[in-house]
From TrEMBL:
Alphabetical list of Gene3D superfamilies matching this protein: CAP
Superkingdom to which the source organism belongs: Bacteria
Annotated SCP domain residues: 15-139
Name of the molecule in the record: CAP domain-containing protein
InterPro entries: CAP_dom, CAP_sf
């Protein structure tokens, strides 16, 4: 199946990433929780994972070399005390991805956790057309 999307500009990718981040913080605000802080380094880790899933046509928390989200964070020099990851694929907007996460107990728990920082990475391509990764961590 060819991708639903044309070649994505960096502006489009960034808009999807920021919308996912903003939706996470809106859900937290509704419950009186403090917002996540955006973290460029962890967003880079998340973006690379989404790009890897799109380029190599897989959907998993572990990459094809077996590296877990925590392995990838450490590889990128991110020191973590607590961390989590949400992934989604195929949803045509960040709103739909967020809706899916909020209706999944484990993903919702990550979004509403006491972890402090969040970075989101989005990539277009592959059989699912779009891949989302949210990486959460507390240094």
């Amino acid at each position: 199946m060819s991708s639903f999307y044309p070649e994505a500009s960096s502006t489009l990718v960034s808009a999807y990433e920021r919308q996912s981040f903003d939706l996470a913080n809106a859900a937290r605000a509704k419950l009186g929780m403090s917002p996540f802080a955006w973290d460029d380094r962890i967003a880079g880790t998340a973006r690379k994972h989404s790009q890897d899933m799109a380029a190599n046509d897989f959907f998993d928390h572990n990459n094809l070399q077996g590296a877990s989200p925590f392995d990838r964070m450490k590889r990128d020099g991110i020191k973590i005390r607590a961390a989590a990851e949400n992934i989604a694929a195929g949803q045509t907007s960040a709103i739909f991805a967020h809706h899916g996460w909020m209706n999944s107990e484990g993903h919702r728990k990550n979004l509403l956790s006491d972890i402090k920082r969040l970075g989101v990475g989005v990539a277009f391509g592959g059989s699912m057309s779009i891949y989302y990764t949210q990486n959460f961590y507390t240094p």
